[in-house]
Amino acid sequence: MKLIRMLLSIAFIAFLTGGILTGCDGFINQEKPIINENPDQGNQDIKDSEKNAPPTEKEQTPNQDQKDQNKTDEKDNPYANAPKVDPTEYHEKAIQVVAEPNDVAILVNKQYRLPDQYEPDDLVYPDVPFIFSEKVEKRKLRKVAAKALEKMFAAAEKDGVYLAGASGYRSQSTQVTIYNNYVDQDGKEKADRYSARPGHSEHQTGLSIDVSGISAECAVEECFADTAEAKWVADHAHEHGFIIRYPKDKENLTGYIYEPWHIRYVGKELAKEIFEQDITLEEYYNVAIPVNENK
Ligand SMILES: [Zn+2]
């Protein structure tokens, strides 16, 4: 009788603890995931909902696009789980900090930002002319981009085109000042179309530079697009590992108006691919959704 009572109480305790432990295990193994407990859950929801979304214009031309899609997947695309949001606007909840800020193929835009106060540790002064003489921060670039820029400027000279740097690296604190000045001048909505918020500027990567002709005429201005220098840069930058980061009529994908002067080092292989396919870095990583240009 004693034995039976003992067995019964052991069974009862086992039932109690087992029940509790199963609950824990269930949670740990995510057999019954609790909504909002998993930080990736939100992204998964967006991805799942997209599976049922009607095909976009891009998906209706399968051959080349399918190939591109596979290519990006093969490379273990670090931006594959991007929530799909209007790329022309900042979406506080969708903003993600890039995991590898030193990667030359890094994507920085309104959705992806650099770690707070990120500063590359290999900034150098490229040996090329600038439209100013001071040896200041904006004259710097990361070493790999600086070397490529020197080769690009030398190649341009051979074709009788004389380029100059206008603005390279920019620290986060400099961007704070610049952005705030633009907001004071034009208001936030307009400023967001041409100036990045601190942490979101490609200039902070040390891989981007605004270029101009040596005369500085039309430097960082719309009229640069019509110069011989702009034409040369558009045709040849990719041969040296640079892309025109904000191409014409792609604001709905990049989030920024056309900037023929803003080039970004991504490495020769990637630059060639982006140039030949006539796509943006957002399209390369398949994170861009086209938005209504008239909005
Ligand atoms: Zn720029």
From TrEMBL:
<dbReference type="InterPro" id="IPR009045">
    <property type="entry name" value="Zn_M74/Hedgehog-like"/>
</dbReference>
<dbReference type="InterPro" id="IPR052179">
    <property type="entry name" value="DD-CPase-like"/>
</dbReference>
<feature type="domain" description="D-alanyl-D-alanine carboxypeptidase-like core">
    <location>
        <begin position="139"/>
        <end position="268"/>
    </location>
</feature>
<dbReference type="Pfam" id="PF02557">
    <property type="entry name" value="VanY"/>
</dbReference>
<dbReference type="GO" id="GO:0006508">
    <property type="term" value="P:proteolysis"/>
</dbReference>
<dbReference type="GO" id="GO:0008233">
    <property type="term" value="F:peptidase activity"/>
</dbReference>
<dbReference type="InterPro" id="IPR058193">
    <property type="entry name" value="VanY/YodJ_core_dom"/>
</dbReference>
<feature type="compositionally biased region" description="Basic and acidic residues">
    <location>
        <begin position="45"/>
        <end position="77"/>
    </location>
</feature>
<feature type="region of interest" description="Disordered">
    <location>
        <begin position="32"/>
        <end position="87"/>
    </location>
</feature>
<dbReference type="InterPro" id="IPR003709">
    <property type="entry name" value="VanY-like_core_dom"/>
</dbReference>
<protein>
    <recommendedName>
        <fullName>D-alanyl-D-alanine carboxypeptidase-like core domain-containing protein</fullName>
    </recommendedName>
</protein>
